[in-house]
Amino acid sequence: MNEEGSVVRNKAGLVAKGYCQEEGIDFDETFAPVARFEAIRMFLTYAAHKNFTVYQMDVKSAFLNGLLEEEVYVAQPPGFEQKTIGVLVQIYMDDIIFRSTNKELCDKFSNLMQGKFEMSMMGEQTFFLGLQVKQVKDGTFINQTKYNRDLMNKFGMEEKSSVNITMNTSVKMDMDAEGKVVDQTRYRALIGSLLYLTASRPDITFVVGVCARF
Q1: Do you know which InterPro entries this protein is assigned to (predicted)?
Q2: How far apart are CA 151 and CA 184, in angstroms?
Q3: What is the pLDDT of residues 46-93, one digit of tens each?
Q4: Which of 38, 68, 170, 196 has the most Cβ atoms closer than 10 angstroms to its Cβ?
Q5: pTM of the predicted model over 0.70
Q6: Please, which residues bridge with residue 33 across strands?
Q7: Do the beta carbons of residue 74 and residue 89 sit within 8 Å?
Q8: Torsion of CA 33, 97, 116, 32, to 10 degrees
């Protein structure tokens, strides 16, 4: 989906079951599957400071490209009946962001990458890993409006009104023996979602961090 929530391309998803792998047998090294939000914010901050325009490229069918140096086994998820399909994959990162003060260098890099790999130029960066980016002359603005809206709908709060309440930094939280029992799975899902939202909302970082302890 794009930043407006419209479907722009259908993709197949592959999931690595890392929990059943053993070092030295199934893998020899590890890597971060996605960039850290701290790194993205630093990248955008420096680009804005230097008046760079940030561009984005996307790898077409990244999971099906690349040369394999080892055997990779893929299984279909539960519920599929076809047992004869086999797939070998090499997993690559499929999104690239880059910058330069020289537009010609950006065009040269884009043409070079598209000549070597199956990639598409997406123009100026507007949406990356759930982060909406607006690049203007006054600076670069980031937000997660779409993610926040989806979050409200997911937890049934789309009709609720918002109220700003400052949390006391010295508050002590403990178990309420007479309180109402909550759904632990739902609570953890909510806290995990809010932790992701702190990428663009540092004002809620403290309170979400406190709630994440429970």
Answers
A1: DNA/RNA_pol_sf (IPR043502), RVT_2 (IPR013103)
A2: 17
A3: 888 888 888 888 776 555 555 667 676 666 667 666 655 444 443 445
A4: 196
A5: no
A6: none
A7: yes
A8: -10
